[in-house]
Sequence to fold (442 residues):
Amino acid sequence: MRQKATWMIAMLSAMVLSASAVLAQPEVKLDAAARTDAIEAVLRRLTDGYVFPDVAQKMAQTVREHAARKLYDSITTGDELAAVLTRDLRAISKDRHIRVTYSSAVLPPQPSPSHSPTPEQREEARRTRARDNFGLSKLDILPGNVGFLQFRYLAPPEFAGDTYSAAMSYLANTDALIIDLRSCGGSISQDAIPMLCSYFFAEPTHLNDLYWRAGNKTRQLWTWAHVPGKRYLNKPIYLLTSRSTFSGAEELAYDLKNLKRATIVGETTGGGANPGGTQRANDHFSVWVPMGRAINPITKTNWEGVGVAPDVPVPAPRALHTAHQAVLKQLIAGATEEGWQNALKRVLGDVERQATRFKKVAFSLSGYPGAREVRIAGTFNNWDAEANPLTRKGGVWQVVVETVPGRISYKFIVDGQWILDPANPDTEQDGDYVNSVRVVEP
Fold:
């Protein structure tokens, strides 16, 4: 229960810290004292909690050396300092989970590890996650009686259990399943993956272990002996991945791949296997601290820094079409009824003829001559902030991306700060975010 409480507190803390951005005050300029205080506060959190103490010491030493060489002296805003610290800490540790964030509003106190969330806090967390259906963004049955699930994140069973079990009941009579994790940033509960995987195994199965620095403890994660509804056994499962597939989403792919229960189609994933949570550093800065590491019972290691390699490597935008064809071919090969086999062959022919057409689209951002790096993220690259860097030509940053024709949304990232396209007045709301939008003609 203490482990569950810790995860819940981390989730509630992240919610509160994220909400503070909505109430943010106008940003003030950082002076030297405020900059030093922020850097030291972030380093203390990492030194106290990072899963590998020696790496934490290396991060602290290197960042302090950077500060002594005055590499941070030109930074005058919180957002820029957070972005630069994130970049430097990741470069030292090779850990993409580490992320420093800034809030112009004063952050709430960090909950005590021994503190249990109140019923009101739990209910607020549940309502917040319910507004986006607990991360389950799409449920469908594709031609050929192929089930389809798409996740943006994986939520705690105590909140999402009814929704996830209802989805599995809806798909119970399909002949194969495709799970789309291309835009899935991870899990906010240790128990979400065991619950979902419990539908795919007849007996309790050892999925993963999580080692925690605090207390020097390891927790084994197994599928459940009982789940609501009907299990999804002895049927093909395909998982779609991208560079943006991260953290807990990678664990789902890694576990099922090593247990030979799923075929992975797409791109090598992001490479984040160290779980943790958001920690308040000082009044205005917080840092996501990896406090544990995954240990797979089969490989005795994890996907940290290397990602989960696909069985069928294809660019992420083409993964669904590729997987649908592959699963139809597998179902055709295993069909025992001639009529159904012929029907599947007709579906396969239709799918092959309807292959998605992609277009190359140019994006540009004028100005920002002092920027260290500019990138673009959007629906065309699963919001991967590292996939498409821009290059500077004259006074303009430029890039060409490949996308499916239609309505796309996007943002530029300038030295870690996400901004709308100043040359494009068209925007749309996506939950708490506002994105630039553009229509790409066929």
Notes: Residues 1-24 have pLDDT under 50 and may be disordered. The first helix runs from residue 2 to 22. The CA atoms of residues 102 and 285 lie 5 Å apart. The radius of gyration is 23 Å.
